[in-house]
Write a structure and sequence with these properties.
By secondary structure, this protein is an alpha/beta fold. The chain has 2 domains: 4-111 and 310-333, 2-Layer Sandwich (ornithine cyclodeaminase, domain 1), CATH 3.30.1780; 115-307, NAD(P)-binding Rossmann-like Domain (Rossmann fold, 3-Layer(aba) Sandwich), CATH 3.40.50.720. It is 34% helix and 27% strand. The protein has 11 helices and 18 strands. Strands 1, 2, 3, 4, 5, 6, 7 and 18 form an 8-stranded mixed β-sheet that branches. Strand 9 (159-163), helix 5 and strand 10 form a beta-alpha-beta unit. Helix 3 packs across helix 4 and helix 4 (142-154) packs parallel to helix 5 (167-180). It is globular.
Length: 335
């Protein structure tokens, strides 16, 4: 039997993986992880300090899945001055029966972007109020746009407020969101002058930055609000002041062990604002019905998303299943 690998490029992957399918796959993968039906090794982080580069390597396997996968994604903010995208990446998929390489997904980081947005939507689906209509997005990069687009799939948004330190980038982000989020004309997308202004009266707040210091303060949080932090994917990053987490009526992690090593919970525990046992649940436990989420309309809910490898596997499995159905991609011999 000839050994081949399927090669899929970004344009094909974007066509094969739509936001709703990704959301459903990620939701199921989080439940599988939190109920012992997945394998997830620790994240490998590699820094290239002389160029401000950071590389994350994540892997995972969903039990009974056709493939396991390894994802490599990079962020080099200086690329903008070179006319290059600041992030990139690829996913390697392997046959779960034999361990032989099955596919190379040259997605340039698209799967990471889409599955992270999907995880934010899963958090809002299970933790935000059902009538949540106003969202604040802190950040202006690709992830801010993906978060806004995914949120609109799970809540009837009428307003999205965008804040970024660079007003020009904030305006561009708001325009992109307005063009990309289906709304039948009912959605208003605005640029806020400050984080506090963006959060005032918001039902959902999503932080999607690379900040190394707290951006959101506890005084700006009010009963009924849901907050999702997605930017703190390594130990030195932080978007929420520890007091924000201490105020939460429901505190959720995507992965308890991972959030204790990096992310918002990591900082709050290190500074004594929280104890490990103050984590109420993993998001997958709530999805699986093994833990409660929001208990009432006045609850303050906080979800710390550091990104787990099973999300990449789930998204890659959708791409590969659809590619095989359509005969998409290019096959290359391995021998």
């Amino acid at each position: 039997m000839p050994r081949e690998i399927l090669v899929l490029r970004e344009a094909e992957i974007r066509r094969l993986l739509d936001p709703l399918a990704c959301l459903e796959a990620v939701e199921a993968a989080l439940a599988a992880y939190s109920t012992g039906r997945a394998e997830l090794p620790a994240v490998i982080q590699l820094d290239v300090p002389e160029h401000r580069g950071e590389i994350h390597i994540k892997a995972g396997h969903l039990h009974a899945g056709a493939h396991y996968a390894v994802k490599i994604v990079s962020g080099f903010p200086g690329n903008e001055t070179l006319g290059l995208p600041p992030s990139g990446g690829l996913v390697l998929a392997f046959d779960a029966r034999t361990g032989h390489p099955s596919a190379l997904l040259l997605d340039n980081g698209y799967i990471t972007d889409l599955r992270t947005g999907a995880a934010g939507a899963v958090a809002a689906k299970h933790l935000a109020r059902q009538d949540a209509a106003v969202a604040a997005v802190i950040g202006t990069g690709a992830q801010a746009r993906h978060q806004a687009r995914a949120l609109a799939l799970v809540r009837p948004l009428v307003e999205i407020r965008v804040f970024g330190r660079n007003p020009e980038k904030a305006r561009a982000c708001a325009q992109n969101i307005a063009a990309q989020v289906p709304s039948a004309g009912r959605l208003k997308v605005t640029v806020a002058g400050s984080i506090r202004e963006a959060m005032s009266g918001a039902d959902i707040v999503v932080t999607a930055t690379a900040s190394r210091e707290p951006l959101v303060l506890a005084d700006w949080v009010f009963p009924g609000m849901h907050l999702t932090a997605v930017g703190s994917d390594q130990p030195d990053k932080q978007e929420l002041h520890p007091d924000v987490l201490a105020r939460a009526d429901v505190l959720v992690a995507d992965s308890r062990p991972q959030c204790l090593r990096l992310g918002e919970i990591h900082h709050a525990v290190a500074q004594g604002a929280l104890r490990e046992q103050d984590i109420d649940a993993e998001l997958g436990e709530i999805v699986a019905g093994r833990a409660p989420g929001r208990r009432g309309p006045a609850d303050i809910t906080v979800c710390d998303l550091t990104g787990v490898g099973v999300q990449d596997v789930a998204a890659a499995n959708v791409v590969l299943a659809r590619a095989l159905e359509e005969g998409a991609g290019q096959r290359l011999g391995l021998a």
